[in-house]
Design brief:
By secondary structure, the chain is of the alpha/beta class. The longest helix has 16 residues.
C-alpha cells in the first residue's frame, strides 16, 4: 500500500490538483476544506501524511496542526503557505511540521516530498 495522504486547503482548485496528482501516484487521498473536516479525517482514517495549508478561515493551520498532534503525536505534516510568514512557518516547525512549501509550489516538489516522507515512515 502506498499510503494515505490528507490534503487540507480551503481552495478547491488546489485540493483537486493535489488530489489528482497524488491519486495517480497510487496514494489513498482524503480532502478537507477546513479544520473540523481535517480533524475528523485524522481521527477516523489516520493518514500517513498531511498537506496542510496555513491560511484557512476559521481554525488556522497552526491551530489545526496543534489539534492533529493531540490526536496523533507522530502524524507527519507538510505545511503550505502563500505568505512569506517566517514566524508562522517556524511555529509550525516547532510544533512538528516536517517541511513547508510556499505557494505557488512546483507540483513535482510536492510529489517528491510526499514520496520521501511516506517511504521514511513505512520503513
Amino acid at each position: 500500500m502506498a499510503g494515505k495522504v490528507l490534503i487540507v486547503d480551503d481552495q478547491f482548485g488546489i485540493r483537486i490538483l493535489l488530489n489528482e496528482v497524488l491519486h495517480k501516484e497510487g496514494y489513498d487521498t482524503f480532502q478537507a476544506a477546513n479544520g473540523v473536516q481535517a480533524l475528523d479525517i485524522v481521527t477516523n482514517h489516520s493518514p500517513d501524511l498531511v498537506l496542510l495549508d496555513m491560511k484557512i478561515p476559521g481554525m488556522d493551520g497552526i491551530e489545526i496542526l496543534k489539534r492533529m498532534k493531540q490526536i496523533d503525536a507522530d502524524i507527519r505534516v507538510i505545511i503550505m503557505t502563500a505568505y512569506g510568514e517566517l514566524d508562522m512557518i517556524q511555529e509550525a516547525k516547532n510544533l512538528g511540521a516536517i517541511t513547508h512549501f510556499a505557494k505557488p509550489f512546483d507540483i513535482d516538489d510536492i510529489r517528491k516530498a510526499v514520496r520521501e516522507h511516506i517511504s521514511v515512515q513505512s520503513n
